[in-house]
What does this fold into?
Amino acid sequence: MNKSQELHVIFGTGPVGLTLAEELLARGKQVRLVNRSGKGAVPAGAELIAGDVSNPTVARELSQGAAVIYNATHAPYERWPEILPRLQENMIESAAIHGARLVVIDTLYLYGETHGQPMTEETPHTATSRKGRLRAELAWGYLQAHRVGKARVTIGRAADFFGPRVLNSSLGQYVFPAALSKQPVLVLGNSDLPHSYSYMPDIARSLATLGERDEAFGKEWLLPVAPVVSTRTIIQLIEQELGYQLQLFPIPSIEYGQEQGIFDQTFIEEYRELFYQHTEPQIVDSSAIERAFGLRATPLKEALAATIRWYQEQAK
It folds into this structure.
């Protein structure tokens, strides 16, 4: 099959899935998006189908004909132990049956506390949190499927998201809407620490590239990030773009957020073990993917300006 006619199947229609669909369409691919409801606004030219990928039969049927499958699904934190292993098994089986390549988006949770050391592909998976340990087990399982020759799998690992479509992030709905309305901007932990963030279009471009390149498979990759700065510096860049100063509303601990009534109880219970990400430097070294595929992060000022424009459009 001509590569421009390949079918690429994306499970999940969150920010990653939708932005990835745009990127793949721009590369001339056929794109099928799958979510549970079959509803939602998707990029023009993409097919949207309803399907519960936790059902192995559904996952296999909707993957038929795929050259590449992308796992861009998500689930509430409290349901990870129940849902994520089942999704992993069904994705691997579907890729194996159809001879498709499998690209998985992942988090930094499996590294655990790094005490300010830059994270690379060689960083040990030493998480002590429940979610971090689960992510480490899943990553091992995905790559083991590749090692034993069952399916071709690669993992792209991103830092905290920001960008168009990104709401549920520490650099998302608590920052940009408040900044645009000149309200206090919520910042988690210590905003003076260096903190890497992943821009959503860079994530999509990288996942699409990983899916194309044979040498990407059997490995995990840290996706491109701009040179690290502090969250406070990022807020200052937002101020420069908007032309006025912002007031910060610091949340130094999850308990303080609970006292202020900012987070619901379920989120507090689930995120408490991950709050260390905002109380120690979070530094990603993405030089490996940059060297291997020539991928570079969008400059922060440009990425933040595009994010602000998207939020402005949503406010109209």
The domain at 3-163+197-225+283-298 is CATH 3.40.50.720 (Rossmann fold). The first strand starts at residue 7 and ends at 11.
